[in-house]
Amino acid sequence: MAEGIATAGAKVILVGRSQEKAESRIRKIESAGGQAEFRACDVGSRSSISQLAESLFASHGKVDVLVNGAGVNSATPFLEIEDEELDRIFDVNFKAVFRTCQVFGAKMVEADKPASIINVGSMSGVIPLSRVFTYSATKAAVHNLSKNLAREWAPSGIRVNTLVPGFFPAEQNRKILSEERVAQIMGHTPMKRFGNSDELVGATLLLASAAGSFMTGTETIVDGGYASMTI
């Protein structure tokens, strides 16, 4: 997503806790002709998010697009989920999005310029998915938050949408992709394959740019047909 936005002409700020992880992504973006830099931030900390926002608005004057993509997952059976795990997943998947939208949203409203917030949701936040109870609940909360903010900030020209990926194998979900589960997913996906990361770029650019200027409060699904299939 970051590479797609960068190669379309945006200056991208990669935000995270590890500069080492960001460096490889920055090199890839720059080799494709884009611009990117890294800023350290712990999205679990309101003060860290506030410092980031202050720094970015001071150095760039505005933030046109905010993408909230941090996420963690767990396959713990429902009756075995402990409060510590519940709190940890809610803090990363929902509270971090809430805090970031609140901090950056206040500055976007104050700047009085068109802006786009893209919150990364999940098909499990739309259609219940087995074995990821807490993850699904947090993503459903992100979807609801996005719609509420879309309604709240539309008069200010700030669009808020949820990008909803289907099955895109990533670091946090590979551990629950057994052979049996892969077969179940393929049986529910008309395209009979997983998504490739670059297939999120088109939807990202639509939601980020003037091409999607009348889109807000949407759940933009990129899932190979998963949501359209029952049995």
From TrEMBL:
GO terms for molecular function: oxidoreductase activity. It holds the Pfam family adh_short_C2. It comes from the Bacteria. Gene3D superfamilies: NAD(P)-binding Rossmann-like Domain. InterPro entries: NAD(P)-bd_dom_sf, Sc_DH/Rdtase_CS, SDR_fam, Sec_Metab_Biosynth_SDR. The keyword Transmembrane helix does not apply. Transmembrane segments: none annotated. SUPFAM superfamilies: NAD(P)-binding Rossmann-fold domains (SSF51735). The keyword Kinase does not apply. Keywords: NADP, Oxidoreductase. Belongs to the short-chain dehydrogenases/reductases (SDR) family. This is SDR family oxidoreductase. The lineage of its organism: Bacteria, Pseudomonadati, Verrucomicrobiota, Opitutia, Puniceicoccales.
